[in-house]
């Protein structure tokens, strides 16, 4: 059976919510994050700000330089979560196969939908109309036979767009794509592909599996498949949480133990708050440190009983931090970020995705 997959992505979600709720921000370059001259990062940028090159995860200081006229606002995550729940409930009226990737993005399998709408395109149109009606926000959507084509299709017509890739057009569509548009191909991989003469999906498809594995490792097999429009990943309704974390990027680099411990205590308290809202009895605590030169280090400790209180997180985090201290109570190199996360012993505790729930999120 040919699957009918939707990818739906809210347009500049955080920024659009702020512009909806505060009319004075509409039509103006808006940055959610800040303050502008801080070490914090951009959570989201309105399309007016994006015209100046402002992007999510960019340092706020850089965003301010690119767009001096930008308005910086503090994120309101409780509001964003409430709206996300409304959107998810709309999805569930059409199908139970909803895989939420974040507050503002999801895959839906509508091969068989609850309303028995025969065409996936019509389902996408209906969902987008419902979102606009109930939230006064816009969403872009892509329709394809798998996750890969649906995701790429969504990105082609943002904001407020709908792109449909019919089954019979899938291979031609993928062949025509710039490989830079393929999800998961970053700057480093793209540069390597260009050096090998690979610029389009067709170029990628013309390379053998052996060639791609030799040059790109395990990812080569994935590139071999998607260049042919093949993606067998199912839409997973209930994602299994592997970790829960909190982190903070400091206004200025910290070197003194007392300053770092003060920040660590706040992070531990935030982690307890987040844990109290989730059921996640994990036994491994990981300390994440990012130094001033952006070098990343982690240290982990697995306990026999899952920790659950901020004091436990702080005490263990302090022990792990002491590995980086020198005799005078300072660290070997100034630190720009600290994070704590909980995970299960069998999971990869050094995966940066564990810290997706940061105090100052780097995506949005």
TrEMBL record:
Gene3D superfamilies: 3.30.70.270, 3.40.1170.60, 5' to 3' exonuclease, C-terminal subdomain (1.10.150.20), DNA polymerase, Y-family, little finger domain (3.30.1490.100)
Keyword list, A-Z: Cytoplasm, DNA damage, DNA repair, DNA replication, DNA-binding, DNA-directed DNA polymerase, Magnesium, Metal-binding, Mutator protein, Nucleotidyltransferase, Transferase
GO terms, biological process: DNA repair; DNA-templated DNA replication; error-prone translesion synthesis; SOS response
Broad EC category: transferase
Binding-site residues, Mg(2+): 9, 104
Residue ranges occupied by any UmuC domain in the UniProt entry: 5-186
Entry GO MF terms: damaged DNA binding; DNA-directed DNA polymerase activity; magnesium ion binding
Function of the protein: Poorly processive, error-prone DNA polymerase involved in untargeted mutagenesis. Copies undamaged DNA at stalled replication forks, which arise in vivo from mismatched or misaligned primer ends. These misaligned primers can be extended by PolIV. Exhibits no 3'-5' exonuclease (proofreading) activity. May be involved in translesional synthesis, in conjunction with the beta clamp from PolIII.
Protein name: DNA polymerase IV
Gene: dinB
């Amino acid at each position: 059976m040919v699957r009918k997959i939707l990818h739906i992505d809210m347009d500049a979600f955080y920024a659009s919510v702020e512009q909806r709720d505060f009319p004075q921000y509409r039509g103006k370059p808006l940055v959610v994050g800040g303050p502008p001259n801080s070490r914090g990062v951009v959570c989201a940028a309105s399309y007016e700000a994006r015209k100046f090159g402002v992007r999510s995860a960019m340092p706020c200081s850089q965003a301010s330089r690119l767009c001096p006229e930008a308005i910086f606002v503090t994120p309101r995550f409780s509001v964003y979560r409430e709206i996300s729940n409304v959107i998810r409930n709309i999805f569930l009226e059409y199908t139970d196969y909803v895989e939420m990737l974040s507050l503002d993005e999801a895959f839906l399998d509508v091969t068989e939908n609850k309303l028995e709408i025969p065409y996936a395109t019509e389902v996408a149109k209906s969902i987008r109309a419902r979102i606009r009606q109930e939230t006064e926000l816009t969403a872009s959507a892509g329709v394809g036979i798998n996750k890969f084509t649906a995701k790429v299709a969504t990105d082609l017509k943002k904001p407020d767009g709908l792109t449909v890739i019919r089954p019979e057009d899938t291979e031609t569509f993928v062949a025509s794509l710039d490989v830079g548009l393929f999800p998961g191909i970053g700057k480093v991989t793209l540069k390597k592909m260009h050096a090998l003469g690979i610029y389009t999906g067709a170029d990628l498809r013309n390379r053998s599996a052996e060639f791609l594995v030799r040059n790109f490792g395990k990812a080569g097999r994935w590139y071999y498949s998607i260049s042919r429009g093949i993606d067998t990943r199912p839409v997973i309704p209930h994602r299994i949480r592997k970790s829960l974390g909190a982190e903070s990027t400091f206004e200025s680099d910290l070197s003194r133990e007392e300053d770092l411990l003060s920040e660590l205590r706040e992070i531990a308290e935030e982690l307890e708050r987040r844990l109290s809202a989730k059921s996640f009895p994990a036994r491994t605590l990981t300390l994440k440190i990012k130094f001033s030169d952006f070098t990343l280090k982690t240290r982990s400790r697995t306990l026999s009983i899952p920790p659950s209180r901020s004091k436990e997180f702080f005490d263990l985090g302090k022990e792990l931090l002491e590995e980086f201290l020198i005799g005078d109570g300072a660290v070997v190199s100034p630190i720009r970020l600290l994070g704590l996360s909980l995970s299960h012993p069998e999971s990869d505790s050094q995966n940066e995705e564990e810290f997706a729930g940061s105090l100052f999120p780097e995506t949005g």
